[in-house]
Amino acid sequence: MKPGRGEAAVTTEDQTSTDPESPAGARDDGADPAAATEPEALQRRIDELQQALDSARDQSLRTAAEMQNLRRRAERDVETAHKYALEKFVAALLPVVDNLERALAAIDSDNEAVRPLGEGVELTHKSLLDVLRQHGVQIVDPAAQGFDPALHQAVAMVPHPELPANQVVEVLQKGYTLNERLVRPAMVVVSQGVPDAGGQG
């Protein structure tokens, strides 16, 4: 006698669920290797992206710092150029100041005939110095001061009975600075100091 349709259906389902060689049985018994390694691959990718992000952030910070330094350097260069733009012009005017001072020293103020001339030269000299001061020029006149190689140029050394060594005895030519930068050093005569009497005999 042939089995009924219901019995055949039950037998087929039982064979499918219990057959170890069936595809369904294979999926239940073992895990997919690709599925097992997928989280590790994702984590590695996340780590790589994080490292790339950190590197890009660090590079961005360095670039911003370099740009800031360049901007500050450019601002300083512009400020320096503005402050010392007149340096060559001032240096060219200093011989004029020297000549006016020589003229004042040569004029006999007791001579009525040349007194008006002397007053005119003195007024011109004063006006020129006032204009120079307004633009940051200062006089270096180290009379009776210590010798400073940064501001003075010694052209001679002489013994002096009263002054110690390296003292300015005479100023031959005044020096000038522009905004505290030396334009021309003062030309001076410097003392050698008091002779050592104890070393004689």
Please specify the SSE layout and strand pairing:
Blueprint: H1 5-18, H2 23-29, H3 33-83, H4 87-106, H5 115-134, E1 137-140, E2 152-158, E3 168-173, E4 175-178, E5 181-184, E6 186-191
Parallel strand pairs: 2-6
Antiparallel strand pairs: 1-4, 3-6, 4-5
Helix pairs in contact: 4-5
Task: Give an overview of the whole structure.
This protein is an alpha+beta fold and 201 residues long. It has 2 domains: 31-83; 87-194, Roll (Nucleotide Exchange Factor Grpe, Chain A, domain 2), CATH 2.30.22.10. The chain has 5 helices and 6 strands; from the N terminus they run H-H-H-H-H-E-E-E-E-E-E. Strand 4 and strand 5 (181-184) form a beta hairpin. 7% of the residues are buried.
Would you kindly provide a brief summary of this structure?
The protein is α+β, with helices and mostly antiparallel strands.
